[in-house]
Structures are given as structure tokens and as C-alpha cells.
Amino acid sequence: MSLHGVRTIAVLELRQRLRTSRWPVVIGIWFLVIGAVAGLTWWAVSSQPGDPATTLSTDRGTTLYDVVLFFVLGLGMLVVPSLTATSINGDRERGVLATLQTTLLTPADIVIGKLVAAWAISIAFLLAASPFLVWAWIAGGVEVGRMLLAVAVLVFVLAVVCALGLMFSTLTARTISSAVLTYLTVAALTFGTVIAFLISMPILSTQQSVRVKVVPDTWFQQIDPANPDGKNMTGPTAADCVYVTREQSILHTERTWWLLALNPFVVVADAAPSRKPVTYLGFEPLQMISDGARSARMGTTADSLNECWPETQPPPTVGDGTQQLQEQQAQQQQLQKAERDRLNRVPAVWPYGFVFLGLIGAGSTSVAVRRLRTPIRRLPRGTRIA
Amino acid sequence: MDADAGIEVTGVKRTFGSVLAVDHIDLQARPGEVTALVGPNGAGKTTLLLMLATLLTPDDGSIRIAGLDPVAEPRQVRATIGWMPDAFGTWDALTVREVLETVGAAYRMAPGAARTRSAELLELVHLGDLADRPARVLSRGQKQRLGLARALIHHPSVLLLDEPASGLDPRSRIELRDVLRGLAAAGATLLVSSHILTELQEIADRAVIVARGRSVAVQDLSSDSGSGGDTGLESGHRVSHWRITSLDPPRLMAALAHHGVATQPLTDAVDVEVAGDVAASELLAQLVGDGIPITAFAPSYGALETAYLAATEDRQ
């Protein structure tokens, strides 16, 4: 492999793509779709009821960031395989591969050159979406470092998908087969891992007796036997909770969380969550994915067996009620912060997936290089040389 | 690398699964000569050229190109050979000039050198005025000429041309012939596969006839047959064939019989075998001296045709 050879192929590929496909149109549509998603998200978050002073200032930025990055990844997984999945067998079909193989270019030159070209195009798609990430950053709430880490991991994931497509394009003679195989593999990584994880949950669950912190069932009766429904009463507080031991089904996601770590969405999402208190409100897909994966890694713990959830319905109004409302909000924020701290203590999940995807990318590339080696001794069934 | 070695193929065999594509081919192509590879469809010509072009390994036998083994030293062989496949595409979006410059870059030529060489070759194959048009607008014959230019870009000393004349108009064929003769005169080794026998007769010095994956005959085609040299294989011919037409065929036949010349009568002419050009001119002088009304006395291309038909009789 040589820089000169790689550049020759990359320039050739990019030149052809720029001239043949309707590039500006595709990038334009991409820009408009991401723009529409970003605009709608912004509009939805802005029209959310609540106190603008407390919720909106940072939520809008993080939500926008989250949604835009999620869509860029999702759409990228749809677009990027098409950049390489028919690259080599398509060239063979058009009769332009063999004449390159008989030049002084090495198989690695051809494979890496094509990979670099496809990767550059996927980065162009990312750049077209970048104004909306900048918008999210300006809106606030996301650290620039985390944003860059997520984008870097995203770029890496796209490179892996490019390499996968390239490998399949060397493995099958027909372009349609390699395209289908590439999309199936991407689907297996994104949906297959989640499905496998979900199936593993009931299989690995066990019945065991555990200590759970709960509000006693009879709490209202104890406080006021005359009013068992708790009408017009202040709800229980954390201090009222007790530990009980009971038999229940326990999930062992700590044994299968790695299935989620293989998922490209989890890798990107977990690389840079926005790290704000967990509200379970709104739509922040990456944050939710990251939290889900980390909860799974942690499995069932004393913390997650905490069912001591104080009342959240507004208490009866005494005076103008402002003080109680504020107290309750403070209490809730404290809980959300505790939940965030709990999840932040779980070691990150994405490095595992990162390494796994890196191995897939490197493996795919080396298979592709091997498949382009000539002279060929055994010609696989159905393939031609020239 | 031995520049005088040309191409040497000994006992090469290649199968694809259960299909025997090349059974046993022996072939020698010398520098300074054009060697034709002739044979019916499916005889193994293209498979043989793929093996010579460093794309396929032979199952058996050996190949030497300029003294190098294409299996062991593909890179050195690639620097030596120029290959023009029978069917190939071009990068449609690139201009004709860019196609050549890209191939030049693939041969690690410096951009300046590739540019100069491209311009030179575009003139040679008469594509100069199409240089900045996209390659997709080229006609079949023009693409074929571009393919030849591409094979020549790195000054190869061995050329492997698979059906280079297909799709060419008569003028381009004549030009192709001149280009190939010129390359041979400059010392290159040329191996050309083709179906068009009359044309090969003009271009090639020697024809190797292959059928059913085997090299079955070598036919010397050089006009001065006496100096054709040893063909290295069976059935090398040293006689030359001439076709004579007369206003009075019975008298011509009688005269030929009188001079003891081997004849092969045709409907309106007669083919004769004589021992070289000198003998041919002497025969003509004798016939004219006998007062035979001769209207045509020309080299006959029937020899290759006859040899080809004889060698490929059992074709399916």
C-alpha cells in the first residue's frame, strides 16, 4: 500500500461520484430532512408547558443536539452502506476492475482508496448536518467537548459501515446480493442486538428474595384510619419508607448488557450523553439509549429496588401553595439528580462497542484486500475476473 | 528481467471447477514479432491471456514473461506488460484524457510524465480531438482505441491484446496494424488474439492455433516464408501460397501441371504452393512466358484458413 496509490483511487472514486450521481440534490434533501427534524424538535420543546426559566434554557439545546445526532446516525446508517456495498463487484461488472488490478496498484491501494472516498462522502453528509449541531450548541446545555466526542465516534461508526459494505462487495458477484447483505448486517447490529437483549431478559431472570425499600401499603390507614384513601392529606415522604423482604423476579441484564454495547446507536449515544438530571420527560433518544444501556450494565441493585417514590400529585392548597410547590420541585430535582449520579457511576458502555466495531471494520477491510489479490488460484463460484 | 525472452508458455493448464478451460497450451512469442492467437470461441484464448496478465494462476505448467514468473513476481510482470482485455469498460464520467492520466498514475508515473504520454498516445490512436469529451460518448471502436492507448501508457515491452480489432472501422484497422507493426519493429513482444484470419495474416508473423484448450498448430505467416525460422512446434510451414486467376483456366491448369506445381483448384482461381517468394516470381515469369493470360497472381490467405479449419474441425 502506498499513499500515492490510495490517493489515485480515492481521487478517481470521488471524481466519478461527483460527476455521475445527483450529489447536490441528495445532500440538499438530506439537509432539508435534518433541518425539518431540528426545526420541529425546537418548536416542540419551545411549546412545552412549564416554567420557561427552569426547564427550557438548557433542555432546548440538549434535546436539539440529541435528536439531530440521532437522526444523522439513523439516516447515515441508511445512506452510507450504499456508498460502498456495490463498489467492487460493480466495478467488476462494468469491466473497470481487472484493468486496475494489472497496474502497479496493490489490492490495499484499491480497497483503502475506495474506503477513503466513501468515508469522505459520509463526512460530507455529516458536515451538511453540522449547522444544526452548532445551533444546538448555541442554544446551550451541551459541552462542546462531549459534542465533538460524539461526532468523532459517529464518524468512526460510519467508517466501519463503509468497510462492511466494501467487504460484501468483494464477496458476492452480484451487486444486489452485496447490498442486501450489507443492509442486513447493519440491521443485525442495530436491531438484532436489541432483540437478542430483550429475548435474553426473561430467559435469564430468576426468582429470588430481595430487600425492597417501599412506602408501606398501610401508610394512609396508619396515619388516619378514618381516611384510608388519603383524601386531602399530605403524601408520605422518604422518611416514611421501610425495607421489606419479598420474593420477586429479578432480571440479570448485567450478564447480557454487552449485547447492547455492540449496537452502533449505543456506542454513539453513550460516548457523549448530555449528563443532565434524568427527567424521563421529553424526547432525548441518545440520552435514553445511553441510560438504558448503563442501567442494563448495572443490573438489579439495591438502588434499583428502591420503590420509595414519594407522592407527586399536588398537595392540598394551603395559603397560595407556592411554598409547597417549590418544596416538591426541589425534592423531585434531587431525585432526578440522584438517578443521574447513579447512572454516571456505571462505567461507560461505549468503549466495548467501539473496540468491537473497530475489529469489524479492520476485519472487513482485510477480507476485502485478500479478496482482491491476484493472481487468483481459486475463482469463487459465480465470479469473474474481467 | 530478460528483455529478449518475450513470452514463453509451457504446458499450461487451467480449470474452473469441473470446466477445463485450458488443457495444454505451449506458446512462444518473440520480441520484435507479432504472434497471433487464433481459435474458435471457448478455445481458451481469453483464459490464457488472463493468466499471462497476472490475474489467474495456472493449475499446471509454467509461464515466463520477459523471463519473469507472473505468479511469483506479479508486480514486475505488470510493469512489463500492457494488457487490453476483450471486454472492458471505462470510467464513464472521466474524460478520455483523464482516463489515460489515471491509468498513468496507477502505474506510478509522475503527473507530468503521465500527461505528456497521454497526449502522445491520444495522437497515436487518433483520439486527440475527443480528449476532453467524457469517455461514455465514445463509440465502440473509439473505446477500443482508448483501450489500446491505455495498454501502452507505461511503455510496456510485452503487449497482450485480446481482440483488439473488434469494432474498428476499416481505417482504424489499418492504423491498428501500423501501430502494432511499429511496436514490433521497436522490439516489443506482441500477442494478439483474433478471429479475423485475413487480418491476422497481414499483422502477424506467426499464428498459434488453439482449440479445446490445446495449442494444436503453429502457422508461419511472414511473407518471406523461407526465413521463417523454426517454429518450435509441429506442422510449421515453410511454403508460400499464391492464388492465380486466368482468362483461360484449362490452359493455366495444364501449364501448372507441366511445371510440376502443387495445385488446389478453386471455382474461379487456383491456389498453388511454392517454396518461397523467389520460386513464386519464377513461376509467374514462366507462366507469362508460356503465354497464359494471367489476370491476378497474389499471395493466398488460404493457408491459415486451411490450417485453422483443419485444426478446429472437431469444434462443437
Verbal overview:
The complex is a heterodimer of chains A (386) and B (316). By secondary structure, chain A is mostly helical. Chain A is built from 15 helices and three strands. Chain A has a three-stranded mixed sheet, with no helix packed on it. The two termini of chain A are 23 Å apart. By secondary structure, chain B is α/β, with parallel strands linked by helices. Chain B has two domains: 221 residues, Rossmann fold; 72 residues, Alpha-Beta Plaits, CATH 3.30.70. In chain B, strand 8 and strand 9 form a beta hairpin. In chain B, helix 4 packs across helix 5. The radius of gyration of chain B is 22 Å and the shape is globular. Classes of the chains: A mainly alpha (386), B alpha/beta (316). Chains A and B meet through helix 1 and helix 6 of A and helix 2 and helix 3 of B.
Unreliable segments of chain A (pLDDT under 50, ≥5 consecutive)? none
Give helix % range of chain B: 25-40%
User: What is the CATH homology-level superfamily of the largest domain in chain B?
Assistant: P-loop containing nucleotide triphosphate hydrolases
**Assembly category:** heterodimer
End-to-end distance of chain B: 41 Å
Beta-strand content bin of chain B: 25-35%
Q: Span between N and C termini of chain A?
A: 23 Å
Query: How are helices and strands ordered from N to C of chain B?
Result: EEEHEHEHHHEHEHEEEHEEHEH
Q: Enumerate the strands of the largest sheet of chain A in spatial order, edge to edge or round the barrel.
A: 2-1-3
Strand order of the largest sheet of chain B: 5-6-7-3-8-9
Structural class designation of chain A:
mainly alpha
Report the sheet with the most strands of chain A, covering strand number, pairing sense and barrel closure.
3 strands, mixed
CATH class of the largest domain in chain B: Alpha Beta
What is the CATH architecture descriptor of the largest domain in chain B?
3-Layer(aba) Sandwich
For the largest interface, the chains and their residue counts are:
A-B, 28 and 34 residues
Q: Calculate Rg of chain A over CA atoms.
A: 27 Å
Structural class by sheet pairing and helices of chain B: alpha/beta
Here the CATH topology of the largest domain in chain B equals Rossmann fold
- Biggest sheet features of chain B: 6 strands, mixed
